[in-house]
Specification:
alpha+beta, Endonuclease, Chain A, 18 helices, 39% helix, globular
């Protein structure tokens, strides 16, 4: 028996040694490939006073407010779609687009088409996507990449493009490096208008999904923050992790013409009615920034971001986004309101919030309920911290899995929270891609807009109030040592003593995940 055990251990050791060697060789081979494949350095194009429609619209507004950033908070999904499509249509010089996810679905392809039409007009397009979600849609990207005015780069990609098995093997061998992803979101038109925040590109972000749509928030900015967006984009575009798609995949002959025909069909379909109507009814950029929508002008707004080196495993620095946001939140004196769809505070985070409560600070946190969470593993990591947080006086709200019957343009009432934001003392705020979880803090690159402006903070507080209302979220409390979820909007009001609307399988899986040592990956 002893000899048999020794033999098993021997083969396990040999297998482990082979795996480690294969991983080292894979990392070395990829490093050599990445060095050869790097594209030429390119930078944001300089703005001009009146060269493009966006120049003519924005220049007079920013010139009248030197040093001030104008902020338009986009809490409505259709507005978020319209601003992107509208600025793509108005662009005359450049589109610099950086996203974690860009689905080749209904709305994703409509926006693909707007980008293609801009390139046909002579606009230079740089499209940078995280590679994790590109598999299966790269053929559309390869077609776009074949356009002389469009270049696509993938962040931290796998070399294996065909077949799930080959890509899976590479993911396994390069796990430590491929586990780090680019979570940034930037939409940048002519160096004049930037949109940053939580939204990716796809149906669920623009109220077009048939099952579940995200409640999300972006902010469109003009002024100095746009130059900061350009600097962030250029740093990522020219980083060692950004590999030209042309080094990984080649478009088939005629692919661009086929893409032009297929993508162009989007806005002519019956389904596109609400989107076409919103675009037709959208004011120009100048009118939008001078119209009825609240635009907040402030000198104290800045984009903060992790550098691309974070994805290469560099040593954290004080100017990375986590320490900057911690510093901002630590300055709270009266109240803190947090919206984080993926919320895993850890013991250290629980004590951090508890310290605020001991100073007399009111702390409220909104996250997803189990039934609303699209990442079940994250809920498993979060669930065990609810009782400690409530015991320390933190107010907790969880988004219900269903919105109003008219929540979606296509009949879906399914809802999931995706906004990442906070408000400090009713005067300072943040809107971005950063979740309060270990992945955002330690693994993914993140970014967002920090600002100080009472009116903008008031608008963000109104979003928080709407999303934590009884119609939208459950209110959590402790009773007899156990959790209770209160649905105060029900008639009569209803109280749950287990995860509301979640199936037995969801509850069991989330609990099992909570037992596993995977919190650092969540």
């Amino acid at each position: 028996m002893k000899a048999k055990a020794k033999k098993v251990l021997k083969w396990l050791a040999i297998g482990l040694a082979v795996f480690v060697l294969a991983s080292v060789l894979s990392l070395y081979a990829y490093g050599r490939f990445a060095e050869r494949a790097r594209g030429p350095v390119s930078m944001a194009l300089p703005v001009e006073p009146a060269a493009t429609a966006l120049d003519r619209a924005v220049e007079p507004l920013t010139a009248a407010r030197p040093g001030q950033t104008g902020m338009l908070i986009l809490g409505d999904n259709l507005d978020a779609f319209a601003v992107r499509a509208m600025t793509a249509r108005a662009a005359g010089r450049s589109l610099d687009l950086q996203y974690y996810i860009w689905h080749a679905d209904f709305t994703g392809n409509i926006i693909h088409n707007e980008v293609l039409r801009a390139a046909d007009r002579g606009v230079r397009v740089r499209l940078l996507l995280d590679d994790l979600n590109v598999h299966g849609s790269y053929s559309v990207l390869a077609a776009l990449d074949s356009h002389p005015n469009i270049e696509v780069r993938l962040f931290n990609p796998t070399r294996a493009r065909e077949g799930t098995i080959a890509r899976g093997v590479e993911l396994l061998l390069r796990f430590l490096s491929l586990n780090r992803r680019m979570h940034n979101k930037i939409w940048l038109a002519d160096g004049r208008v930037a949109v940053v925040g939580g939204r990716n590109i796809g149906d669920e972000y623009f109220d077009a999904a048939a099952d579940i749509n995200f409640m999300d928030t972006d902010v469109a900015v003009v002024g100095p923050a746009v130059r900061q967006a350009e600097e962030i984009f250029d740093a990522y575009w020219n980083s060692v992790s950004a590999i030209p798609l042309a080094a990984l995949a080649e478009a088939e002959p005629g692919a661009l013409d086929r893409a032009r025909r297929n993508l162009g069909a989007g806005l002519t379909s019956d389904r596109a009615g609400p989107y076409a109507k919103r675009l037709r009814g959208s004011p120009g950029v100048r009118e939008l920034l001078q119209g009825k929508r609240p635009v907040h002008w402030t000198r104290t707004a800045s984009l903060v971001s992790d550098p691309p080196e974070k994805a290469e495993g560099a040593t954290p620095q004080p100017d990375w986004i986590t320490p900057l946001l911690v510093q901002e939140i630590n300055s709270v004196e009266r109240d803190l309101k947090v919206i984080s769809p993926y919320f895993v505070p850890g013991n250290e985070g629980v004590e951090w919030f508890a310290g605020m409560r001991r100073r007399g600070v009111d702390v409220g946190i909104l996250t997803n309920s189990l039934a609303a969470n699209d990442v079940l593993a994250v809920h498993g990591g979060y669930a065990g911290y609810r009782i400690p947080l409530l015991e320390r006086g933190i107010a907790l709200y969880e988004l219900k899995a269903h919105g109003s019957p008219n929540a979606s343009l296509f009949g879906s009432s399914g809802a999931s929270l995706h906004t990442k934001a906070f408000v400090v003392d009713g005067r300072r705020g943040f809107i971005g891609s950063f979740n309060l979880d270990p992945r955002s803090m330690n693994l993914n690159t993140e970014m967002g807009l920090l600002f100080e402006d009472r009116d903008a903070a008031k608008q963000l507080e109104a979003l928080y109030a709407a999303k934590t209302s009884a119609q939208t979220s459950y209110r959590l409390e402790l009773a007899d040592g156990g959790l209770r979820w209160h649905d105060d909007a029900a008639e009569p009001p209803e109280t749950w003593d287990r995860e509301p609307e979640a199936s037995l399988w969801q509850r069991a899986a989330a609990r099992a995940i909570g037992w596993l040592p995977v919190e650092s990956q969540l």
